[in-house]
Amino acid sequence: MRTYSKRRRRSLVAVSAVLGGVLMLSACNDAGDEKAKGGAETGKSQADVDAAAAKDTSKARIAITPKDGATNVGLNDATNVTVSDGKLTKVELKSTEGGAVAGKISADGKSWKPDGALKRSTKYSLAATAKDDAGREAHENTSFTTVSPENSFVGSFIPDEGETVGVGMPVSITFNKPIKDMKAVQAAITVSSTSNQEVVGHWFGNQRLDFRPEQYWQANSTVTLKLALEGVQGAPGIQGVQNKTVTFKIGRSQVSTVDTKTKKMTVTRDGQVLKTIPISAGSPDNPTYNGQMVISEKFKETRMDGSTVGFKNSEGKGEYDIKDVPHAMRLSTSGTFIHGNYWGSDSIFGSVNTSHGCVGLNDTKGANDPDTAGAWFFDNSLIGDVVTVTNSPDKTIKPDNGLNGWNMSWAEWKAGPSA
């Protein structure tokens, strides 16, 4: 009995196991079928969703320059937004400092750019929105960082926008960093004139570039300076950040000739002698430079301290220190001026040279007498007018001592240390 009982139980267990397996297999198959059904239904609904989403997507395509994460971005024309198959409706450019940058969307709605230059070493974020013909919106965002002062260079220049200057005024650009690739920098700068004179640049060292024609500018012409330095590599890792156009006027032609022997100055305007003025130039011990000198600054009154230009006494103080020199006009960087003189007697003008190298004109203390020679010449002179000194025992002034490149021949000017 016990033996039979055990065998029966084992058979029942086996049958149960088989039936259980069948049941489990059936259950798995049912689950698979349901999963398959569900997957088919999910695939169908996702396709519907994708189709609906595609239907609602704007056709407008926004492009932003610079790319997201860009560094060393230029300050002028390096930032812009354009759109195809749509029109821009809103563009916001903000710095991390919180300031919004003004800009304009073009009349056709196809582009945007800032109104002015960006700040250096600043991170900006830009958000743009556009709509297509169906009114569906598209959005793009980017952030970037502008070039740092350490990685950029700028040029300060004279004359400035809208000035009227004399016929001898060169365009002079001084860069705040040494330029190694002079050719690239010079190629990005153009100077032209309505007189159609050929204008050529000349480097004085690696930080100053002057432009002039062969002869003085033609009177009453207009000169245009164009700086296209944005992104130009002036030296390894140093790029330009300026795009600027400057226009200035050339006035009447005035060239004044100082003869240190006769001690007279002849003022010629538009080819006609306007006035002859008695002068007192540099003494035999301190003669005035010869050469063509351009008036670069004008001061109704200024201080002249001899110690600043090398004229010191045994105590180390200036041989002279006049705090109110009237009607002073600079002719050189080293301290040559043509100016009024109230401390010398009237008899020295036209008869004896007494100065430390300047050209002196009779004048009064206070610079308030319009009838003096100093006041007349000051009132009738422009920055950029030429004063030519002749017959002095001194040497000719160096071309880079002031704005005096006219003392270099045209062949030297074109062939000199340039690009």
TrEMBL record:
Q: Which domain of life is it from?
A: Bacteria
* BP terms from Gene Ontology: cell wall organization; peptidoglycan-protein cross-linking; regulation of cell shape
CDD domains registered for this protein in UniProt: LDT_IgD_like_2, YkuD_like
State any single GO MF term. acyltransferase activity
**Designated name of the protein:** L,D-transpeptidase LppS
Instruction: Please name the pathway.
Output: Cell wall biogenesis; peptidoglycan biosynthesis; Glycan biosynthesis
Where the record annotates domain L,D-TPase catalytic, the positions are: 254-390
Where along the chain is the active site annotated? H339 (proton donor/acceptor), C358 (nucleophile)
Any idea of its EC number? 2.-.-.-
Q: Which GO terms describe its cellular component?
A: extracellular region
In which organism is this protein found?
Answer: Streptomyces lavendulae subsp. lavendulae
PANTHER family given in the database record: L,D-TRANSPEPTIDASE, L,D-TRANSPEPTIDASE YCIB-RELATED
Which UniProt keywords are listed? Answer: Acyltransferase, Cell membrane, Cell shape, Cell wall biogenesis/degradation, Lipoprotein, Membrane, Palmitate, Peptidoglycan synthesis, Signal, Transferase
